[in-house]
Amino acid sequence: MLRPGVGIVGDVSFPVVGVVGAGQLARMMAPAAIALGVRLRVLARDGADSAAQVVPDVDVGDEGDLEALRRFAKGCDVLTFDHEHVPTDHLRLLQRDGVVVRPDPDALVHAQDKSVMRARMAELGVPCPRWELVGAVEELDAFGTDVGWPVVLKTPRGGYDGKGVRVVGSADEARDWLRTLGPGERLLAEERVRFGRELAVLVARSPHGQAAVYPVVQTVQVDGICREVLAPAAISEAHALSAQAVALRIADGLGVTGMLAVEMFDTDAGVLVNELAMRPHNSGHWTIEGARTSQFEQHLRAILDLPLGETTMTAAHVAMSNVLGGAIEDMYAGYLHCMAHDPGVHLHMYGKVVRPGRKVGHATTLGEDAEDVRARARHAAAFLRGDIHE
Amino acid sequence: MLRPGVGIVGDVSFPVVGVVGAGQLARMMAPAAIALGVRLRVLARDGADSAAQVVPDVDVGDEGDLEALRRFAKGCDVLTFDHEHVPTDHLRLLQRDGVVVRPDPDALVHAQDKSVMRARMAELGVPCPRWELVGAVEELDAFGTDVGWPVVLKTPRGGYDGKGVRVVGSADEARDWLRTLGPGERLLAEERVRFGRELAVLVARSPHGQAAVYPVVQTVQVDGICREVLAPAAISEAHALSAQAVALRIADGLGVTGMLAVEMFDTDAGVLVNELAMRPHNSGHWTIEGARTSQFEQHLRAILDLPLGETTMTAAHVAMSNVLGGAIEDMYAGYLHCMAHDPGVHLHMYGKVVRPGRKVGHATTLGEDAEDVRARARHAAAFLRGDIHE
Questions:
Q1: Across A299-325, average pLDDT
Q2: CATH code for residues B16-101
């Protein structure tokens, strides 16, 4: 699918970064790559994928197909990811072929498998909710009796945006799910934490060990889907520093290269780590306009082992509101109102066909007043989606 | 050259913008288009052109070829430009075909033909250097005797970056050039203005008449090539307002749609208009990080008749230094030093093969202290080019 000539023109000293997956994260890497002159190649499941629409150098193939991965990796200086769905073993085989994979599969596995992650967090002494692997109703029942109901059940691999997660009030409610497990398969049962709010910390780390941490943000999730991100989180400086320290310890302990997003529960007893992602993350979209270096540029710099950029904010407060698919199919129709209403709103659309609940874009606002900034981002997202009409 | 599937995928309600020309200006429109979901198509002279490397939807053809323009314009919702080299008459024929051309050729001609521009500025009462069209040595001699030598001679059409411009100390020095003129052709002779500094004002204007003006900047030119841009210019607020008023008057008077850059001489008697460009301009590259809305997003918004974005600065001072081709061919080699030296520097490379004096990229810095910000941008550009080694 490569247009003739592309990839061998211009200043050929610039590296080629291959991104497995062509969703909005790969799409938002493109502007950073264009500015730096870094050549981006994406492996898309479909030529119409979000990033495939805006990157000239596209391979179509499945990330589960080793040969497709091998073809794709050829000529890439570094391989990185838009998602966590590439089999870890495939990545190890690519490394044996000489492909530079960042993050390293030994690190990435902690973002792919929640049970591996939980075990490693315990080794690192990172505070987490209580957890247990359960394969049978009796095991879940014992865990729930111990930590208290309800309990959060998760599939260790492959869940996202609320999929593969269930909150159960008794072991009985999970009987059907547990029955579907193959031999040796187990679910991850976690204590349902009573939290004041959810926080996220983004860290970039490069192969030679430099790390850069972003201000702690608050994330607002509804049904397991991120709806809003507020930067910085309204917490004390000491509390923010301790959350950042946890994220830095994880980045270093796991040997992450590239962006790491650490999602946390904020509780009376301190932060507890919820999930990890090793790529640019929804909780960092605000950095495109809101930080001196966006998470997308930072990811490229980190995986290319370039020195990392400044993470300071460009305004006192930044809010990001996701645009989910709703009543309106034509996402461009709302631009006129949104831009006239608020000349400072930054609209991002991913080129995705609108389906109910699907993340199709986001709106970012910046300013001096946290509540005002939040209201503006919400307004834009709600208007585009069709929830409000003025 | 269009990859199958591109242009008819995703959310098809978004407009297609066709850019004639595929240099760095079209290239830097791409990130803005990606964010907004606007579909970009470029007409490149060569598939290896700067913007053609990063945009999937590329047509190869010459902007002087009417049929190539017609093919290219088909399916574009709006046609716009990376340069001024499209024949005005071709654009009028495209308009007759129903193509939406922005800026309108009746406006664009003022950026294409300096003699048309000078005559119109006089009508609008816009302050300009004294000028005269000269076709013979005697005419030039009379003009020079009147305004004083040396005199600046310009070809009315096709000059750029110091090309097509000559400073002459006597009519005799232009004898060879004047001899090459065809029947009816004349050169534009202009008074050589004694200026304190050069200024530039960027204005965006949309078809329904909304205009947005950016802070006045100082440009530093060497041999007719822009080397540095300093925002804001160190001038009084009253002086800045009067320069902005001149730019707004021109935008309105000419019916500009899209970005207009007005280059000015700053003299003891006020500003005098030097040149016009109707597209994103080198004097506005700083807006990518330095203003809430970049000139590239603003241009897209203006030509699509969307409401314009905020033009306020994101820092007290911003400096942009062009990277010209020098001793070093590998522009990536300097990234390690530049980024380690200054985590706040923003590097932009255009994917162009390095040739001496050619604009191949730029560096932007932001901060509180004007001199420090300027020194940082200069350092990065000089290091990348190979002028300094530490």
A1: 98
A2: 3.40.50.20
d(CA B116, CA A326): 52
Minimal-distance CA residue of chain B relative to A35 = B348
N- to C-terminal Cα distance for chain A?
43
For A259, residues 6+ apart whose C-beta sits below 8 A from its C-beta are A202, A203, A204, A277, A278, A279, A280, A281, A284, A295, A298, A299, A302
Q: Cβ atoms within 10 A of the Cβ of A169, count?
A: 12
Q: Which residues pair with A190 in a beta bridge?
A: A131, A152
pLDDT tens by residue, B4-25 = 444 444 556 899 999 999 999 9
The pLDDT of A90-115, averaged and rounded, is 97
Task: Give pTM, 2 decimals.
Answer: 0.95
Q: B9: which chain A residues are within 8 Å (Cβ-Cβ)?
A: 47-48, 53, 351
ipTM value for the complex = 0.95
Is it true that the peptide bond before A232 is cis, omega within 30 degrees of 0?
yes
> Residues A125-156: pLDDT tens digits?
999 999 999 999 999 999 999 999 999 999 99
CATH superfamily, domain A130-191, is: ATP-grasp fold, A domain (3.30.1490.20)
| Separation between Cα atoms, residue A170 and residue A167, nearest integer Å | 9
Question: DSSP 3-state assignment of B187?
Answer: strand
Residues of chain B found within 8 Å of residue A212, distances taken between Cβ atoms: 343
**CA geometry: angle at A73 spanning A70 and A79, to 5°?**
130
A218: enclosing H helix or E strand: strand A217-222
Superfamily (CATH) of domain B197-385: ATP-grasp fold, B domain (3.30.470.20)
Strand pairing class (B16-20; B39-44): parallel
Q: Do A6 and B47 touch (CB under 8 A)?
A: yes
